[in-house]
Amino acid sequence: MKILYAIQGTGNGHASRALEIVPHLQKRAEVDILVSGYQCELQFPFEVKYKMYGLSFIFGKKGGIDLLETFKKSKFRNLWREVKSLPVQDYDLVINDFEPVSAWACKLRNTPIISLSHQNAVADENAPKYGSNFKLERFILKYYAPAKNRFGFHFKTYSSATFLPIIRKEIRLRSITNKGHYTVYLPAYGDKKLIKLLSKFKTTKWEIFSKHTNQFQLHNNIIIRPIDGKEFIKSIASSSGVLCGAGFETPAEALYLRKKLMVIPMKNQYEQQCNALALKEMGISVLKKLSKKQLPKIEKWLKSKSIVEVKYPDVTEDILDAITLPYYNQTILPHIAIE
User: Fold this and answer.
1) How far apart, in whole angstroms, are the C-alpha atoms of residue 43 and residue 61?
2) Which pLDDT score is estimated for 59?
3) pLDDT of 85-134, one tens digit each?
4) What SUPFAM superfamilies does this protein's entry cite (predicted)?
5) What are the phi and psi torsion angles at 256 (to 5°)?
6) Structural domains in the chain?
7) What is the rounded CA–CA span in Å between residue 88 and residue 112?
8) Torsion angle of alpha carbons 75, 78, 80, 85, nearest 10°?
């Protein structure tokens, strides 16, 4: 069996999940990898056969997605050329993690495709939804990378088509300690703003991992590091707590490691607003934005000893067996539609 595994390259969450999924797939089939997008810092230990420009969202420095910059860097004609040229017909199955080029190529050529992403779980009718006036955002979730057969990952199982998070082996096998610092990953905020606000807590040690620098910096009680996967795992596993965006992988890993957690959802990012709502329902501290007015809430969180308990078993292999077995048997998956 020949499988194309397609990864969205915006951020590091999709890539982190791929590091765990791809080796399992390679035991079962011949696997080629496609990555589209240009904001992923993680390095893959396997060959990427197709590197596409795709359609990415650009992080700003003021707490959200930079919509203007996203539009400027979007190359829609190029996207259409990539869709038409990608030979998805050469594969028995495409597994897609919110990646638009392969998804639309499969739709164009009627190639079998399974969508396996966190976004599918967010779109599930049983998952928490933020607000009622986000028709465009819901439209994007549904049609950005279309597929009929959809499965998702979330902090909790909201339906039979939703699985618990896939936690990387590097996290599962890591020794958990507490060296007193707080790990920060807020890529939608600039370093200057983070330093200005977090420096108010003079007795707290902060380790910030930044998309906006390529060198180590020290500012009194604040360390700023460029993105580095190994160093990030080391930092988060030995931290007192984690302050991060309301994405999926980093909060899930912090919860798995039993770390105190506070999240700040990105502006103009519907998915993160929904994630924040789900986490808040679980008892996680949530800030609307990072600002001077929010400092008392951060101080209260720093003093708190509350940790939310979760159980995320290692069932990656079982998940992949369940969703791919019908294709090995040359049968058809039941239609799972997400409205």
Assistant:
1) 24
2) 60
3) 999 999 999 999 999 999 999 999 999 999 999 999 999 999 999 877 66
4) UDP-Glycosyltransferase/glycogen phosphorylase (SSF53756)
5) -60, -40
6) 2-167+314-328 (3.40.50.2000), 170-303 (3.40.50.2000)
7) 9
8) -150
* Token couple for 48: 């990427």
86: tokens are 């990608």
Assess contact for 158 and 125: CB atoms under 8 A.
no
| Six token digits for residue 204 | 């707290």
What is the reported pTM?
A: 0.88
Under the banding of pLDDT at 50, 70 and 90, the label for residue 209 is very high
Token pair, residue 159, equals: 């339906």
**Which helix (H) or strand (E) segment is 195 a member of?**
helix 191-198
Q: What is the pLDDT of residues 32-60, one digit of tens each?
A: 999 998 656 667 888 999 999 888 766 65
Least confident of 155-159, 269-273, 312-316: 269-273
Which tokens belong to 96? 């897609």
Q: In 3-state terms, what secondary structure has residue 157?
A: coil
Contact partners, residue 182, CB within 8 Å, separation at least 6: 204, 205, 206, 207, 239, 240, 241, 242, 243, 302
The SS3 assignment for 231 reads helix
Q: Read out DSSP for 262-329?
A: EEEPPBT-HHHHHHHHHHHHHT-EE-SS-SGGGHHHHHHHHH------------HHHHHHHHHHHHHT
- Tell me the C-alpha to C-alpha distance, in Å, between residue 124 and each of 14, 141, 240, 249: 19, 10, 33, 18
Indicate the SS3 state at residue 39. strand
